[in-house]
């Protein structure tokens, strides 16, 4: 059953890279493996420190990446993406899987799983698995996130929003490390 679920999640992630899809460009991807998940987690750990995020929606946020819980979790905190609000995203390994939980101003906590990788592991695709305060799939939530590690001091993330049976790109955020 777990293998069937993993295959289904992998197929869903491949959609991120479909040419006829307005959700993103065509990029060859591979399904998640334990090695790719661990390598991606190490990339998130290397982000430790202060960052600035600039959204395609025009806002600027202050970000901080911090390893917590004896290095088992990377916590990203975001200030002012929504005026006067803070959000957080936790990245962690659960066995051989890389997961994230996003603590959103939408007052829910979607959990996404890394299901595909591209660019030699520099791009990580997370797809919705489940979440708290999301009573039905149609309740608005962050549904997919694609992180691309462009350089040591630059990360690009793209997020989708899912609601009422429809998924759409919400925004792209360019994150740069503060000096």
Q: Whole-number radius of gyration? A: 15 Å
Q: Total helix count?
A: 2
Order of helices and strands: HEHEEEEEEEEEE
- The average pLDDT is 88
> What count of domains describes the coordinates?
1
Task: Please describe what this structure looks like.
With 179 residues, the chain is mainly beta. Helix content is 14%, strand content 53%. It has helices at 2-14, 34-45, and strands at 29-31, 49-55, 60-68, 73-79, 86-94, 97-103, 109-118, 123-132, 141-151, 154-163, 166-177. The radius of gyration is 15 Å and the shape is globular. The chain starts with a helix and ends with a strand. The model is unreliable at 1-21 (pLDDT under 50).
Task: List its salient traits.
single chain, mainly beta, Lipocalin, ten-stranded antiparallel barrel, 2 helices, 53% strand
Describe how the helices and strands are arranged.
Elements: H1 2-14, E1 29-31, H2 34-45, E2 49-55, E3 60-68, E4 73-79, E5 86-94, E6 97-103, E7 109-118, E8 123-132, E9 141-151, E10 154-163, E11 166-177
Antiparallel strand pairs: 1-7, 2-3, 2-11, 3-4, 4-5, 5-6, 6-7, 7-8, 8-9, 9-10, 10-11
Short description:
This protein is mainly β and 179 residues long.
